[in-house]
Write a structure and sequence with these properties.
The protein has 11 helices and 15 strands. It is α+β, with helices and mostly antiparallel strands and 342 residues long. The termini are far apart.
Length: 342
């Protein structure tokens, strides 16, 4: 039984149109987009050693300043000595690979066969109208408070591994959020009170080999609708982000976790910290795995800028999510924060 989602079957029209376009060679938009994906320089993100925080004094303060500076200038950075062991990261990836190897039928009936809640398994892009809007990937998107219940037959320690990973990464996210608030002059309890296990998410991603890597994204260009995202990726590579108005490829680092600022932190910081566009490109021959943790508040949490004059009006996280979903459904892509400018 095939484990890959039925991309070709469901999106057959898109592939037929792409084949027709390349034959007639008159689709300039596609050619430009392909050029954009292929010609990308690889670079290393700012690398921050979090063990320096334990030293305190000027060394600890300099580490905090580097975190804030990277969040302002890049919106992305990577951390080492982050408190999550290499053994746990490797175990998480191993369990992830095993569950994605299940048949598509089992994964798409995750509540029946894998003991995940219905709707946890996702693949492709339901609102796509062309190959350029298709995400060539599959994922299990799991609320943290449902992680402990996810123990499918034959995956005895999957839930305990996910729970261990989520607990340590949650602690790291809170620490980083409080540092970023502190560097804006706020000793805030906001994150401790509003970003709880019941509101945060874990997402296990797989990007299968793709026959048209120059035309199809693994994940469409987007920003994250949270405060912070913490990502562990394998060594295949494929993550790209915008820096100084051009796309750059992130060089994988086996010991590091990647941190990126989400839309909510950009709004809360009044545009000091940057939520930047990023995407995942596909690979013709090799599959790619990653695990992402999304640091989110409850839907009724009100987001307002921490200083005046505010760039954005007040909005609840639920209102923001609803607007994003409406835009994606109607326009094919997310608008995000520009919808909430004062």
């Amino acid at each position: 039984m095939d484990s890959d989602p039925p991309f070709h079957k469901v999106y057959k029209t898109f592939f037929d149109n792409a084949s027709s376009s390349s034959t007639t060679n008159n689709n300039k938009d596609t050619e430009e987009a392909m050029k954009d994906v292929v010609i990308v320089e690889e670079c290393e993100l700012p690398l921050i050693d979090l063990s320096r925080l334990e030293l305190g004094g000027s060394e600890g303060e300099e580490c905090k300043s580097e975190i804030a500076r990277a969040s302002q200038e890049w919106g992305f950075f990577q951390v080492v000595n982050h408190g999550i062991s290499i053994e746990l990261l490797q175990k998480m990836k191993s369990k992830q690979e095993k569950i994605f190897k299940q048949s598509f039928d089992k994964k798409s009936q995750e509540h029946k066969y894998l003991n995940f809640s219905a709707g946890t398994y996702r693949w492709g892009s339901p609102t796509a109208t062309s190959l350029r809007q298709l995400s060539w990937s599959e994922a299990f998107h799991i609320p943290l408070n449902k992680v402990s219940a996810s123990s499918a037959t034959g995956f005895d320690d999957l839930s305990s591994t996910m729970e261990q990973f989520a607990t340590t990464v949650s602690s790291l996210a809170l620490k980083l959020a409080e540092i970023l608030a502190e560097k804006l002059g706020h000793k805030s309890t906001f994150f401790h009170e509003n970003c709880l296990p019941s509101t945060c998410y874990l997402r296990m991603n797989r990007y299968p080999p793709c026959p048209l890597p120059s035309e199809v994204f693994g994940l469409m260009p987007h920003t994250d609708s949270d405060f912070l995202t913490i990502l562990h990726q394998d060594q295949v590579g494929g993550l790209q982000l915008v820096k100084d108005d051009r796309w750059i490829a992130v060089k994988p680092n086996p010991e590091a976790l990647i941190i990126n600022i989400g839309d909510l932190f950009q709004a809360w910081s009044n545009n000091v910290y940057k939520s930047v566009q990023h995407r995942v490109v596909t690979n013709l021959q090799v599959e790619r795995f990653s695990t992402a943790y999304f640091f989110c508040p409850s839907y009724d949490t009100v987001i307002e800028s921490c200083c005046e004059p505010s760039v954005y009006r007040k909005f609840s996280f639920g209102e923001y999510r609803q607007q994003v979903q409406e835009d994606v459904k109607q326009l094919g892509s997310k608008i995000g924060l520009p919808r909430f400018l004062v």
